[in-house]
């Protein structure tokens, strides 16, 4: 199916349809097969993005994810040009838990944790009041095997969880969540939430860190040079106005130390209901299962660019089995 003047929608194995005949994620490839040099093809792609931005933006609001495949995005500079062509305002990574570094322009590394360790499903920075609305991912080096970035529609998770645990979901909607994290003054790359408070708030000054945290709805308590951040109550269920439905907008499973998965165990982070109740193992196990059953994990191809609506889609990372793998990210307001 042609989409606009420059793109065509295609189907891929592993896409899903939730009874409406619409495939998730949306996959777009070039409509024109004209043989041009790489530099000219990239220029045409950038011009196409600018020309069709209203259409592309409306599609990602409705479909949740657009995977651009088969376009001549080769270098990090190319990827930065793609992000710039969309012209979404940049979102600084102040307050984010993961340890990332800026690479070029608006492009950052995705996560410092060893690639063989999985990252649970989450909405980017959903534990803060100031979170990005859109994410771009780019595959600079495709994995040999493994290392996918699974994605799942958040309203599907909400509907399944409400059906399975209506009382818990009612409490979640009433009270929200409280997120807690212990941060030393140094970074610890091996941990999921290994970013120290100096990196998190981009300052060496405790008072400045407190001020920046407060703007995001976070309170800092000091234990020597260690900061305990307490954020909440934060909504765990949000309403998607564009599509008129509720979404499972939280990072609940990230703060859950799954006894079945000792690799994902970080005692420095925790999540609980904002009324003080802990998250039960049975609820969390069902949530993890539902996310895995409903997700889509299309293997990365070199040059892929994936635009994610962070308001309606959760993402994660599967363990890398065979290197290499190089995925980069850019955050937008």
Question: Approximately what portion of the residues adopt beta-strand conformation?
Answer: 25-35%
> Architecture, CATH level 2?
4-Layer Sandwich
**Strand/helix succession:** EEEEEHHEHEEEEEEHHEHHEEEEEHEEEE
User: What Rg do the Cα atoms give?
Assistant: 20 Å
At the first level of CATH, the class is Alpha Beta
Termini separation: 30 Å
Largest sheet: 9 strands, mixed
Sheet/helix structural class:
alpha+beta
Proportion of helical residues: 25-40%
- Tally of distinct domains: 1
Number of helices: 8
Here the CATH topology equals Double-stranded beta-helix
Low-confidence stretches are: none
**Average pLDDT value?**
93
* Beta strands, count: 22
3D shape: globular
For this structure, what is the CATH homologous superfamily? Clavaminate synthase-like
Largest beta sheet: strand ordering: 1-2-5-6-19-10-22-8-7
Describe this structure in words.
There is one protein chain. The model has no long low-confidence stretch (mean pLDDT 93). By secondary structure, the chain is of the alpha+beta class. Helices cover 26% and strands 29% of the residues. The protein starts with a strand and ends with a strand. The chain has one domain: Double-stranded beta-helix (4-Layer Sandwich), CATH 3.60.130.10. The protein is globular. Strand 7 and strand 8 form a beta hairpin.
